[in-house]
Design goal:
The protein is of the alpha+beta class and 728 residues long. The protein is built from 26 helices and 17 strands. A hairpin with a 7-residue loop joins β1 and β2. It binds adenosine-5'-diphosphate (ADP) and magnesium ion (MG). Its EC number is 6.3.1.2.
Length: 728
């Protein structure tokens, strides 16, 4: 049996970049495979087109007759582009995407066929979806779920299928996906923010949430990866000694991109453009073989869909280039992990970014209103925001001395801090004309100038204001952005509703002028949300202590963090904002706990298997060579052999010691797993996996990694860190 590691290394040595042929001018490729506004106009009747546009903009219902027309148009377009199937495309709670393909045509015998794609198939599908997580919402005997068309995200062609973005709900109407609550949260923020925006501009009739994600990932050669069951199954290395050269030199960041990778990126970018994903930046990240892809921001629902689609596209394109993509938040110990920054803002249908300062004091008061309300919302619901990014894999990043900590805090920069400090001193009640003039000229009026020099970005903050948007940096690279974006919009919507109520009371009952009332409420909000603001080093020990004193949460593990999802405060929030029900929240809690436990269980099994089936046998092989050597030395040197064989004998002993510890730790870990599996409920199971199973990973790894550096390199079967990270 050849050593697979050497075989893989040899294969990689032979690889050349795949030659990519440009499919056309980039601007012409853009949206080629998307049924966008322009294509819709071309293929649809005026009536159908207007009906769909109304649904997109105002959530109007599309009647059945029109749906038939729309479906026909979609089908004709899709077939003209070579599609043969259609598929409802959705995002179940597994975090990935799901599709079920049906052919447009169905033969009915005697050489005849009927077309199967009408309004009915477009709008709703019943799907046997009993294998998707549902947290007990759907009894197993009632395995029906429904997918329903979401007209706000355009259909697209992927491979040979026309994909229709849909929501996924149970027979009884509960959401079984990430999109349903997101759409509801987007409705909530639209309503709440429009009301508030009207204080400043009566012409606003709609507010959308915008999202620009930044996807980090690792690219690893597929042959090298295939020698590592941990990478292939868990998406991360569970053992491996750190290489002599890691990222200490920081020479990868913005360095030149290797040829094979560049060719992958070009290919990927073309695919993205065809699918209407407006990709733009491309650069190396801090770690070796780590990269980032970021598009221009979009309306949030579309951006979430595009990110889910992108992860799938990335995998598919990688196959053509003999790579695998690692989306895991921490694929390699000791090397930077990956995140997915979520840049978030709000925009009006009058074309204004509500988190960007404007040219007039009134526009800046509008900016301050949305800015301060967001900070207050984050302060109020920091624990929920933390929960929205909790997962077994993200636990390796958050709170593990890597960006950002498990503590949520808001960074706004020195200058805006000064503005808020000054606003905090505004007097209560009616403002004097002098005070108002001063405020407008010297505080609010100065804001645009501040932005010219907005260089003091703090990289360690989890929720940072970056000039015209907030950047939520705690989101995991593997995550579906739907979850955090739902939370941000829901909590800010709630805050804006409260804000409007408070301002209106001051206007109507206290007779204050509108801007006096707004200043008054904002002043209170600044005071109430001070504890969430932090400008210092988020990685430091002092901040952990300080955050604790401030009463901020610091939930380092997923089981701990998830609890916030089912607190009475959270349930109250979601029910009042009509985003999720108690039943849905409790089901999700259950699902996430189970997913967490499963992840740790799989990793536990893997590390046990690899230790026993790869590491120990290899170590024994090497030990036998040593024993052979000592025997030979004894033959030559007789009784005095220890003079020349003592090092070898020492090694033989040390190998045995490591093997012994590995075996006993793996046994203990198995016992802990048994205990976890017998626990009385999902919460308890997850807790045991977290606190009693997981700690064995590092202990077992330690001994395996020691053996890795002792054993003859020729014998080692698992591709080493330096090879995984520096070969491409
Ligand atoms: P950095 O890497 O420094 O965080 P980038 O320039 O890579 O910054 O990313 C900025 C991200 O912010 C991009 O994805 C961009 O699309 C997004 N963005 C810019 N403006 C907005 C906005 N108004 N709403 C949402 N996202 C935005
Ligand atoms: Mg960023």
């Amino acid at each position: 049996m050849p050593n697979l590691r050497f075989h893989a290394l040899k294969e990689v040595g032979k690889r050349k970049p795949v030659v990519i042929t440009e499919k056309g001018k980039r601007s012409e490729l853009f949206g080629e495979n998307v049924f966008n506004e322009e294509t819709m106009r071309q293929y649809m009747t005026k009536e159908a087109f207007e009906s769909v546009m109304n649904a997109i903009q105002y959530g109007a219902k599309i009647d059945r007759k029109i749906a038939d027309q729309v479906a026909t148009a979609m089908r004709d377009w899709a077939i003209s582009k070579g599609a043969t199937h259609y598929s409802h495309w959705f995002q179940p709670l597994t975090g990935s995407t799901a599709e079920k393909h049906d052919a447009f045509f169905e033969p009915i015998g005697r050489g005849r066929a009927i077309e199967k794609f009408g309004g009915g198939q477009l709008v709703q599908q019943e799907s046997d979806a009993s294998s998707f997580p549902n947290g007990g919402i759907r009894d197993t005997f009632e395995a029906r779920g429904y997918t329903a068309w979401d007209p706000t995200s355009p259909v697209f062609i992927y491979g040979t299928a026309l994909c229709i973005p849909t929501i996924f709900i149970s027979y009884t109407g509960e959401a079984l996906d990430n999109k349903t609550p997101l759409l509801k949260a987007l409705t909530a923020i639209d309503q709440a923010a429009t009301e508030v925006a009207k204080y400043f501009d009566k012409n606003v009739t709609k507010v959308i949430s915008t999202l620009g994600w930044e996807q980090e990932y690792f690219l690893i050669d597929k042959d090298l990866a295939s020698t590592r069951p941990d990478l292939m199954i868990a998406g991360r290395t569970l053992l491996g000694h750190t290489p002599a050269k890691g990222q200490q030199l920081d020479d990868h960041y913005f360095g030149s991109i290797p040829g094979r990778v560049l060719s992958y990126m070009r290919d990927l970018e073309q695919e993205c453009l065809l699918l209407g994903i407006p990709v733009k930046t491309r650069h190396n990240e801090v770690a070796p073989n780590q990269f980032e892809l970021a598009p221009i921001f979009e309306e949030a629902n579309l951006a979430v869909d595009q990110n889910s689609l992108l992860m799938d596209v990335m995998n598919k394109v990688a196959e053509r280039h003999d790579f695998i993509v690692l989306f895991h938040e921490k694929p390699f110990a000791g090397i930077n992990g990956s995140g997915k920054h979520n840049n978030w803002s709000l925009a009006t249908d009058t074309g204004v970014n509500l988190l960007a300062p404007g040219k007039t004091p009134m526009k800046n008061l509008q900016f301050l209103t949305f800015f301060i309300c967001t900070i207050k919302a984050v302060c109020e619901y920091e624990e929920l925001l933390r929960a929205s990014v909790a997962s077994a894999s993200n636990d390796h990043r958050l709170g593990a001395n890597e960006a950002p900590p498990a503590i949520v805090s808001v960074f706004i920069g020195q200058q805006l801090t000064k503005v808020l400090d000054e606003l905090e001193d505004v007097s209560t009640g009616k403002l004097s004309p002098e005070e108002k003039t001063d405020l407008k000229l010297n505080v609010v009026g100065k804001i645009p100038d501040l932005f010219l020099d907005n260089t003091d970005r703090n990289r360690t903050s989890s929720f940072a204001f970056t000039g015209n948007k907030f950047e939520f940096r705690a989101v995991g690279s593997k995550a579906n952005c739907g979850k955090p974006v739902t939370i941000i919009n829901t909590i800010v919507a709630k805050q804006l509703i409260d804000f409007k109520k408070e301002v209106d009371v001051l206007i109507e009952e206290k007779g204050l002028k509108k801007d006096d009332a707004i200043f008054n409420v904002l002043r209170e909000y600044i005071k109430q949300s001070k504890k969430i603001r932090f400008e210092g080093d988020g990685y430091s020990q002092e901040w952990e202590e300080e955050a604790m004193r401030r009463g901020l949460s610091n939930n380092k593990t997923t089981p701990e963090a998830l609890k916030a999802n089912v607190s009475e405060k959270t349930i109250q929030l979601f029910e009042s904002m009509n985003v999720m029900t108690r039943v849905e929240l409790e089901a999700r809690y259950e699902i996430e706990l189970e997913e967490y436990a499963k992840n740790i269980q799989i990793e536990g099994r893997l590390i046990g298997d690899i230790a026993r089936n790869h590491v120990v046998p290899t170590a024994v092989k090497y030990q036998n060579t040593l024993i052979e050597n000592v025997r030979g030395l004894k033959e030559i040197f007789g009784d005095g052999y220890m003079d020349v064989a003592s090092e070898q004998v020492e090694l033989i002993k040390r190998i045995s010691e490591h093997i012994k510890v590995i075996h006993s730790k793996v046994d203990d870990m198995i016992e802990a797993r048994k205990k976890a599996n017998k626990a009385k409920n999902a919460e308890e199971t997850a807790k045991i996996y977290c606190n009693e199973v997981k700690p064995f990973f590092d202990q077992i790894r330690y001994h395996c990694d020691k053996l890795e550096i002792m054993v003859d390199d020729e014998l080692w079967t698992l591709t080493k860190y330096r090879e995984l990270l520096f070969t491409n």
